[in-house]
Amino acid sequence: MKHIFYVHSHTTYLTAVGTITLLNLNAGDVIFITARKYQIPADAYAPAKVMDWTVLFEQAMSSKFRFWKLNQLLLTADADIAAQIGQKYIAYVPHSGVFTVQVLITNKNCEGFHFIEEGSNCYSRNLQIKHFNARNFTKEFYSAIFYKSRYWETDFAFSKISKRNIKTETFGISKNSFSYLPVKHNVVTWPQLAYNVDLTFTNPFFIFEGAVEMDYLGYDTYLSAINEAVKAKGKPVNYVKFHPAQTAENKQAILNVFEQHGFKYVELPGNIPFEALITSNKGLDIVGFGSSLLIYAKLTNHHVSCFENLLMADPKYKNYKSRFDYDIESIN
């Protein structure tokens, strides 16, 4: 039996390694499927094999509601699973809301699957609530007609709880993650990763997200909120952590805000997991809005200043929070 971990971010990587340690899995039985151009950190845990599904993921995301293209990608995914795995397996996935995960957990060789923590969504109270609106009805109807029951369109990212040979469980770093799913929950410990970067830990760390690029927050609202946060918490020198989805133009607009207040900034390298910084240091000043990194900073006892309330006037963000209603301030 193989154990397949779907890893597309530092958070999923760390949770995967924590799960592997908790379950005492044999390294020879572990395979990672990576996506979104994620690179496993150097000098860290490496599985027996890594399958890169970045291209498959991108092709699927650009083919939504084009079932004829997705059906071809389904054949591609199944062929890759047969060639590189070739036996029964258990899948460990962050959610079941995207094509690449769906075809992995519905493959004939998948005996069952578990959810591993990846971010703020697993703290939402809406994990088990389906919203019966025109949007979801259209998606589910279209999926039932065209998608062969192997993949589906939904806003319900933790659907299709496994009814196969192995019951679904969840793995997270907090007792509160996945607390609204009616399955067994396991608390794991993230490993500490080495990193080579010279930092002054008395400077604040500003955490930004790709909300504008992902179209659930207006640009003007975000920039205005950033201005207020920098004005309130900025210091002569500040560390800046961007989200991989953020565009060069939007990054520069944010950096301009620091300059307008007369503050210097240092952008943190994208290849250094911020999660590694917060698990190996204490008492950092973390400033942000709705990023899951603020949750993890709170869980590891850092000083967190959350300005998410400044985003709530934006209709797009208000709609987003109605579906993913985690509250950073209340998580512990």
Would you kindly provide a written description of the structure presented here, covering whatever features stand out?
The protein has ten helices and twelve strands. The model has no long low-confidence stretch (mean pLDDT 89). β5, α5 and β6 form a beta-alpha-beta unit. The protein has helices spanning 10-23, 54-61, 67-84, 99-105, 134-146, 219-233, 248-260, 274-280, 292-299, 315-323, and strands at 2-7, 30-34, 49-52, 89-93, 110-116, 169-172, 184-187, 205-207, 237-241, 264-267, 285-288, 303-306. The relative contact order is 0.12. It is of the alpha/beta class. It has two domains: 2-187, Rossmann fold (3-Layer(aba) Sandwich); 205-330. The chain has a seven-stranded parallel β-sheet, sandwiched between helices. 34% of the residues lie in helices and 17% in strands.
Query: Might you state the CATH topology name of the largest domain?
Result: Rossmann fold
Assess the beta-strand content as a share of residues: 15-25%
The SSE order reads EHEEHHEHEHEEEHEHEHEHEH
What about the largest sheet? 7 strands, parallel
Please tell me the overall pLDDT.
Answer: 89
Low-confidence stretches: none
Determine and state the CATH class of the largest domain. Answer: Alpha Beta
Q: Per CATH, which architecture of the largest domain?
A: 3-Layer(aba) Sandwich
Kindly, what is the distance between the CA atoms of the first and last residues, rounded to a whole number of angstroms?
A: 36 Å
Our Rg estimate from Cα atoms comes to 20 Å
Total E-strand runs: 12
Please tell me the total number of domains: 2
Structural class: alpha/beta
Give the proportion of residues in helices.
25-40%
